[in-house]
Every structure is written in structure tokens, then in C-alpha cells.
Backbone:
């Protein structure tokens, strides 16, 4: 039986643990620093075992030693966004947490197959985790796919059709205020979205819809006073299921990128997650879309350099001393 560690027993972590158990996907170790919290949530889930008829186990702990030899680690820990906060407002506290979690993965789970980073700002916390965990870049991805699924949902509502008729929705770059929301990749009921904008969809409506996607998490916080957790939990399970040999995951995930155009950064690209890990291809949109993506990359570089200036990660040229898999 496979083993999944979920770091953080809050709403995202506990929901993810429940989904894994209900699907009989793997035994789950739920880890949190709050005494009693992971133990209580694990016990609560195990009380459903006979009703839901799952055969895997869910264990709660404050100690990282039970996570040893995990096949997959999902990191949901960290400070959650509150009303009025952006993802970037969480930078210092959550990157410090990411640094320690990367070290914990190296210590307790050196043979891990895949790590999914959920907590914000995910592009940067994912990068910090990767540096300290010492794993290959193909072994870590982040939950930027959530933005593409929000784009699909918004387009389905706008055109009043099933989401199944919206294909190849894509957002790239950062999982934050500077994400690049593409139109050129998308098909709406078999028709290119770029051909509909300016005709069946006024330019202003497309701009407003892009902003709803970019502010999707903020809107949820404004409505209920806390960040989203059902959709992040479900998508993270789709990602780890792919990494464990299930159906490949094809939405753009956050991945470590180092090529001729983008260097030493983690951001959403055209990706696929399989049992071989996460791989990416270069993105090509319209001139305006490519410009937006470049701006998103520059924004992420500034955040990365800010974390370097804080001393949380070393300068880029020293990363290989911590993780020999990084260029």
C-alpha cells in the first residue's frame, strides 16, 4: 500500500486526507504542529471507515518520524490568506516554513516520488521547498492548476454551457495577482475563444472575466472569510494520483523552469504529471499574451530575490550546494 503524508491538518489538509481515504488511494499520515488537531481529525475520519468502506488508514501526528518512507508528500501548511491579503503578503512567514519543510523531507522522506506544494505564495514556497528537499525538479509541482480550472468554470458560466465544452483553458506564470490568463489556447464548444472575443464576447467582458479568475481566491475569502479549500484539496489529489501512476494530470502546474527564456524560477507552464514526474513544454501565445507571461516571470523573480535578501535561501549560484539537481 502506498503512503501519503499531508503536512497541515487545516481545511485543505483534512479535506485532502478524507478524499484520499474515501478513494482507497493510500494510507495517510496527517501532520500538524498543533497538538491533538491531526490526531482528532484522523480519528474522526477513521470513525467513518465502516460506512465509507475504505480500507486504508489515516494517522494523525505532531512528529515527523511516522512520515518516513512516504511515496508522496502534500504540503498544505502555512499561514492562510485573510480578508484584504494577497498571496504575496504571506511571503516571509510561509517561505520560512517552506525551508524547514524542505529539510524535513530530506531527513524523513529522501525516497519520496513526488511533492505537491499548495500553500501560498505557492510559486515561491514551492521553490524554497525544492531547494532544501534536495529532490529533482521533476519530483515537485505546485497547485497553479487551480487558476486554469477557475478560468474553465468562469467561461462555462459566461457562455451558459457545460464545462465539458470548454477545452484547453490555460493560465501560466505566477499563481498570484500577476498570472497570465490566455485566450488563444481555449476552445468554446469547438470554437477558438480568441475568435469569439470582440464579437460574441465583448472585449470588456473578457477583461472582467480575466479579473474574476485572477481574483478567484480573494472573492471566496470575501464571501466566507477564509480561503478556498475544497477545490485545492481535490486538485492536489488529482495531481498525486497521476504521480502515483493514475490518469495523467494535464492542467498547467507550477514547475521548476530553467530554459533560454525563463531561469531559476518555479511557475506554471504547459505541464503533464505522470508516474515519471512533472515535465513541461515552452508556452507560446499571442504577442500580448507572451508579454503578460514575461511580466509575470519578472514579478516572480522579484519575489525570489526578496526571499534571497531575507537570507531564507542562498543566492542562485549557491543552490547546487543544497540541491545538486538544480542548475
Residues:
Amino acid at each position: 500500500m502506498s503512503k501519503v503524508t499531508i503536512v497541515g491538518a487545516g481545511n485543505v489538509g483534512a479535506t485532502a486526507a478524507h478524499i484520499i481515504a474515501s478513494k482507497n488511494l493510500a494510507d495517510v499520515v496527517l501532520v500538524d504542529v498543533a497538538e491533538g488537531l491531526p490526531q482528532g481529525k484522523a480519528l474522526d475520519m477513521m470513525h467513518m471507515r465502516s460506512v465509507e468502506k475504505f480500507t486504508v488508514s489515516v494517522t494523525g501526528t505532531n512528529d515527523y518520524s511516522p512520515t518516513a518512507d512516504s511515496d508522496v508528500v502534500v504540503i498544505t501548511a502555512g499561514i492562510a490568506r485573510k480578508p484584504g491579503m494577497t498571496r504575496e503578503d504571506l511571503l516571509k512567514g510561509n517561505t520560512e516554513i517552506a525551508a524547514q519543510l524542505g529539510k524535513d523531507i530530506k531527513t524523513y522522506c529522501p525516497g519520496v516520488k513526488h511533492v505537491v506544494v499548495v500553500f501560498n505564495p505557492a510559486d515561491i514556497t514551492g521553490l524554497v521547498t525544492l531547494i532544501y528537499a534536495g529532490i529533482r525538479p521533476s519530483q515537485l509541482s505546485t497547485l497553479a492548476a487551480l487558476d486554469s480550472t477557475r478560468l474553465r468554470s468562469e467561461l462555462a458560466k459566461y457562455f451558459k454551457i457545460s464545462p465539458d465544452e470548454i477545452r484547453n483553458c490555460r493560465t501560466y506564470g505566477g499563481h498570484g495577482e500577476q498570472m497570465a490568463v490566455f485566450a488563444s489556447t481555449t476552445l468554446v464548444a469547438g470554437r477558438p475563444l480568441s475568435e469569439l472575443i470582440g464579437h460574441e464576447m465583448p472585449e470588456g467582458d473578457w477583461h472582467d472575466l480575466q479579473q474574476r479568475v485572477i481574483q478567484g481566491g480573494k472573492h471566496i475569502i470575501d464571501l466566507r472569510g477564509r480561503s478556498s479549500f475544497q477545490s485545492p484539496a481535490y486538485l492536489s489529489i488529482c495531481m498525486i494520483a497521476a504521480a502515483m501512476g493514475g490518469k495523467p494530470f494535464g492542467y498547467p502546474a507550477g514547475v521548476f523552469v530553467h530554459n533560454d527564456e525563463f531561469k531559476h524560477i518555479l511557475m506554471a507552464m504547459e505541464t503533464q504529471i505522470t508516474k515519471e514526474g512533472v515535465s513541461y513544454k515552452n508556452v507560446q501565445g499571442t504577442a500580448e499574451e507572451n508579454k503578460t507571461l514575461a511580466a509575470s516571470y519578472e514579478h516572480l523573480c522579484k519575489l525570489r530575490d526578496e526571499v534571497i535578501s531575507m537570507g531564507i535561501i542562498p543566492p542562485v549560484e549557491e543552490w547546487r550546494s543544497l540541491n545538486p539537481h538544480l542548475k
